[in-house]
Amino acid sequence: MTGALLLSGAALPASAAVPDPEVIGPVPATTALGDPAHGYPFLATDYDLAGHGYVEEEFFLEGEATRYQADGVTDATVLSTGHDYRTRIVVRRPVDPDAFNGTVIAEWYNVSNQWDQEVDWFQTHEHLVREGYAWVGVSAQRAGVHSTTGLRAWSPERYGALDLTDGGTVTDDSLSYDVFSQAVEAVRDPEGTAPLGPLDAERVVATGHSQSAGRLRTYVNSVDPLADVVDAVVLHGGGASIRDDIDTPVFKLNSETDVAINLLGAAERQPDTDLLRTWEVAGAPTATGSSSRTTGACASGTSGRRPVATPARRRRASSPRARGCRSTWSRAPCTTTSPRGWPRARPRRRRRRSR
After folding, report:
1. Could you read off the pLDDT of 50-101 as tens digits, one per residue?
2. Residues 6 or more apart whose Cβ sits within 8 Å of residue 38
3. β-strands 250-255, 232-236 pairing
């Protein structure tokens, strides 16, 4: 994954079709991490962000979203507009603007287990922090908010007002694409409260793992041609064919499991182009031990929905390999340059709003 995250080039224009949502926050924590009252962000990280000059903040977003019919093959069509929503994003970013490399990783939370999972953060956070990225997790789908294990159930006091159904009138995930677009728009060109604080996003790379990769494949094929708010997309462990007539760079990273038995990895192979790269990592599983341990702890309720520190994790962090370039959370190559031949994002003029 990390190779494609190091794209360079001009940022995309913020499309007039994507409105800025109202940004509320940062929402303060009212209890300590692990407190059963759950007065802190769901899946708040236990990684030492402060020790690396980073901060974690949660924001609520609210506005009106568009329902799209998107087949992942052609441009999406609008079903209806003006649907009220309220969701949340989690931001982990450098405190010092000079430590920011200009790139935001916008992760579409995976909701396969009926709650938000930040798989790509789990597997790449050491690299992201070391290299000065900002990371934003986006709650875009109903299951992560409305299921019996979702945000509203986990902390009614903190999350009870979140709604991705327009008061129960939308019973599918057709709002999710525009909600994700608006979250990216709020990060890259905010009006009012800026989720990145003093940081100025030069580019935004959308990423998602497995189920989320499938959603993002539909997004980049059908919705991004209309919204035009992301600079590149990383499909990690999933995602089918990519259109050959879109101009957003796409990087597909598949494990051996994905290719051999899962998620159309082999059946949907495409040749590399100027805007598409595919890596297949031999011997790699769909989920790493770190994310599996955390998922299991979340399911049993023992972690308070937090990443779980284990002796194995601490050993890896202190190993010679961990002190070098290679990520301890991923078997993908760690690099400080783009993959060989990987294209720069196509330069586009970006509209700047008056503040």
Report:
1. 999 999 999 999 999 999 999 888 999 999 999 999 999 999 999 999 999 9
2. 31, 154, 155, 157, 158, 304, 305
3. parallel
**What is the predicted pLDDT for the residue at 256?**
74
Per-residue confidence (pLDDT) for residue 338, from 0 to 100: 38
Alpha-carbon separation of residue 341 from 90, 101, 107, 265 (angstroms)? 33, 21, 25, 22
Residues 87 and 60: beta-carbon distance below 8 Å: yes
What are the residue ranges in the chain where pLDDT is below 70? 1-16, 239, 261-267, 283-355
DSSP per-residue string spanning 7-63:
--SPPPPPPTTSPPPEEE-PPPP-S-TT-TT--S-TT---S-SGGGTEEEEEEEEEE
Picking from 254, 258, 182, 188, the residue whose alpha carbon sits closest to that of residue 219 is 182
Q: Domain map of the chain by residue range?
A: 2-306
**Helices and strands per DSSP (H, E), number in the chain:** 11, 9
As a whole number of angstroms, the distance between CA 5 and CA 337 comes to 9
Omega of the bond leading into 271 within 30 degrees of 0 (cis):
no
Predicted pLDDT of residue 110: 87
Distance CA 85, CA 140 (A): 10
User: Considering the domain 2-306, what is its CATH architecture?
Assistant: 3-Layer(aba) Sandwich (3.40)
Q: Which of 298, 302, 307 is nearest to 49 (CA)?
A: 307
Q: Given this model, what pLDDT does residue 340 score?
A: 37
